[in-house]
TrEMBL record:
Pfam families per UniProt: Meth_synt_1 (PF08267)
All residue ranges annotated as the Cobalamin-independent methionine synthase MetE N-terminal domain in the record: 90-290
SUPFAM superfamilies in the record: UROD/MetE-like
InterPro entries, A to Z: Cbl-indep_Met_Synth_N, UROD/MetE-like_sf
GO biological process: amino acid biosynthetic process
Gene3D superfamilies: 3.20.20.210
Highest taxon in the source lineage: Archaea
Transmembrane regions: none
Name assigned to this protein: Methionine synthase II (Cobalamin-independent)
GO molecular function, one term: zinc ion binding
Length: 335
């Protein structure tokens, strides 16, 4: 029997009132984006918005609570764009969509920052008894989103990113789960030399926590070579996009190379306003289980396939409720 855990990959849409207030307080230029030295008024808006999105998750009945990553103007590049030894360059398209981020140009040693730990600590005050889930970019995706002007070698840069993220995790408050969002593993597969080093970079992050670690991929299926290397990482689960990804390739990889004991299933569309009903999500869980030839998963994290900041707030809230209801139709599902 597989335990279903309703959760989210984080990076939530800002509440409408917060968008309005921040528009007045921050401005609209590249230099007005989050840099880590916000004014007290801006900090207060984000604090109130954080409390609101945590409450939304509790109201929905999720089994894990994320901080929401509302300050992440640069999406997954955020941990670098606010770093003291990173300069922000021009605006770059964020994967294959109409969002953009500042190019983080690493010009010095990636020393400890503590920015994400402070966010998570603040969220923990509102989570109550619901376990906390930390969220970070996966090391490969963060390296791919950045420009290295310091380390000088792709493998060394990936290792430095892994060590940096691991150092950040060491400062996190207690958390039950850590989601590493690593879509580039699927959308821009590493070459052979780097693919071999991806598990080591992931382990540098995963080894810094006692929490269950999920490397969540989306927008496509992981190719066979990358998946085989990813299975070498010392993590509890790999996450798959069953909405936009190539399901046939994903299922081939799982059945050919095996899987971790746990899995994350991206079953609700994080970019489409159509709200899936709980029964549909539950049917998708059962469909995935039916396609797996090996033994069932111990735990399945039921989530949107992508980060959901693309959605209107009301649709996002409805999707959270649908995910929670889907996981709660029965406490477990039999493969």
């Amino acid at each position: 029997m597989t335990e279903l855990v309703a959760t989210s990959p984080g990076l939530f849409p800002l509440p409408d009132w917060a968008k309005s207030d921040l528009s007045d307080l921050k401005g609209h230029q590249k230099d007005d984006l989050i840099s880590g030295d916000e004014t007290d008024d801006i900090v207060a808006v984000y604090e109130d918005a954080r409390e609101e999105v945590v409450a939304d998750q509790l109201d929905a009945g999720l089994d894990r609570v994320v901080e929401g990553q509302l300050r992440w103007d640069d999406m997954l590049a955020h941990p670098l764009t606010i770093h003291d030894n990173v300069e922000t360059g021009g605006i770059v398209r964020y994967y294959d969509n109409n969002n953009f981020y500042r190019d983080p140009q690493v010009v010095g040693d990636l020393s400890f920052s503590g920015d994400v730990a402070a966010e998570l600590e603040a969220a923990s005050e509102f989570a109550g008894e619901t376990p906390l889930q930390a969220v970070l970019p996966g090391p490969y995706s963060l390296a791919e989103l950045a420009t290295d002007e310091y380390y000088g070698d792709e493998a060394d840069f990936l290792a430095a990113i892994g060590d940096f993220l691991g150092g950040e995790v060491e400062a996190f408050p207690d958390h039950e789960t850590l989601f590493l969002l690593d879509p580039s593993l699927a959308t821009d597969a590493p070459d052979d030399d780097i693919a071999e080093r991806v598990p080591e970079a992931i382990d540098a992050v995963a080894g810094a926590t006692d929490a269950d670690v999920v490397v969540h991929t989306y927008w496509d299926a992981i190719d066979e070579k990358t998946y085989a290397h990813l299975m070498d990482a010392d993590i509890e689960a790999i996450g798959f996009d069953f909405v936009a990804g190539d399901r046939e390739t994903t299922l081939y990889n799982i059945n050919e190379y095996g899987a971790k004991d746990d899995v994350a299933l991206g079953l609700a569309d994080g970019q489409n306003t159509l709200v899936e009903d709980p029964e549909t999500i539950r049917e998708r869980v059962e469909w995935v289980n039916d396609q797996i030839h090996a033994s069932e998963f111990d735990t399945a994290y039921v989530t949107t396939n992508t980060e959901p900041f693309y959605l209107p707030v009301n649709k996002h809230q409805e999707k959270l409720a649908a995910l929670a209801a889907a996981a709660d139709l029965e406490s477990e599902v039999e493969a």
